[in-house]
Amino acid sequence: MRDLVYPSLMPDAEYVHDAFARIADRYVLTNHVLSCGMDIWWRKVVTARIRKWKPQRLLDVASGTGDLALEIQDQCPQCEVIASDFCAEMLVHAASRGIAKTIVADALKLPFKDHEFDVVTVAFGLRNMADYPAALREMNRVLKPGGRLVILDFSLPAGLLRAPYRWYLHHVLPHMAGWLTGQRDAYEYLGGSIEAFPSGKGMTDLLESCGFSQTDSQPITGGVVTIYEGTR
Predict the structure, then answer these.
(1) Is residue 7 included in any domain, yes or no?
(2) Which residue ranges of the chain lie beneath pLDDT 50?
(3) Which terminus in the chain has less CB density within 10 A, N or C?
């Protein structure tokens, strides 16, 4: 299968880096408020899956302030968890919150050898990358044969929830985020990025084009977010 490419939809890396650097200090609180605390539960759902696999080594890509990495580190004590992100300002917070191992790294060129990890995770990060296929191929490369990729990201719900959610996404969320962080412009692109991000079969097709098999997508919270899986 040929690679699926989304050249006009993917964000500018320099803009994203600058935006996250500016909101790093208020990022965790803002996420909790904007999701009404649901982001905590979403990460617990992902971690419960991973715990069953009993991984020994896990890489959390685009880890940011380390929310998912922290949950996995707490619930999977046998697992070495490494948090990576291309924004050093975000990782400062991850380390201060207790992440044992952090590394500043571009997801498009991960500084790891082939086949190093049992699991790779990326929560709310792939959507912000400048090249989805390139990032996914890098994640595939560092996974051991049979290793699993888990993606947690926003999606658009279907049915009656879709219209009010899109209104919230484009008209309410930027105002609330701006008030909480003082950086409204850092959130103004969020709605568009969610609209453009491949979801459902679009994402599983992309995963397969990047070398993953046994792909799956599971919408949760009415489809506001979706968990995707793929096996190397």
Answers:
(1) no
(2) 1-8
(3) N
